[in-house]
Design brief:
Strand content: under 5%
Helix content: 55-70%
Order of helices and strands: HHHH
Number of helices: 4
Structural class: mainly alpha
Radius of gyration: 26 Å
Oligomer: single chain
Largest sheet: none
Number of strands: 0
Length: 148
């Protein structure tokens, strides 16, 4: 919103871009503290974006501003809801990071061993599907995985 109320200012648009980009970058990290900061920055960026979506105007209180000059109260209500949701999510992530630090003295998210096993099985299946001489799994002796 500009001072004249005609549209979004370039500074606020750039601020939204920086907050969202930095938040997404931090969300992709493996450290829970950085993930928490990423959620907070991303949320603030989206809140500013929602604020930019509504036209600027007077306070939406009856009797204080003409109806045509009132701002839309919906963006402010949505931002207030988003702030509450972000606060709850931040508290949850902070508790998870603290619990992880108590148990392992760090808050990095580790690879799940079952995920690695699934990736290994998927790689094996992909290799088998590329080989036209096999019909099924190779580790099944006498089964359909034997070579023809």
């Amino acid at each position: 919103m500009t001072g004249s109320g005609q549209g979004a200012s370039l500074v606020l648009v750039v601020l939204v871009g920086v907050l969202v980009a930095t938040g997404v970058m931090l969300l992709l990290e493996r450290n829970l503290t950085r993930i928490l900061l990423g959620v907070i920055l991303l949320s603030n960026g989206v809140n500013v974006l929602i604020l930019l979506a509504g036209p600027a105007g007077g306070a939406p209180l009856a009797g204080t501003t003409p109806v045509d000059g009132m701002s839309d109260p919906l963006p402010q209500a949505m931002i207030l809801t988003a702030i509450v949701i972000t606060l709850g999510l931040a508290a949850f992530l902070l508790a998870v990071a603290y619990r992880s630090w108590l148990l392992t003295t760090h808050d990095d998210v580790r690879d799940d061993p079952e995920d690695r096993q699934i990736v290994g099985l998927a790689d094996r299946d992909a290799a088998l599907s590329e080989d036209p001489d096999t019909v099924g799994p190779r580790d099944d002796p006498g089964g359909p995985g034997e070579r023809r």
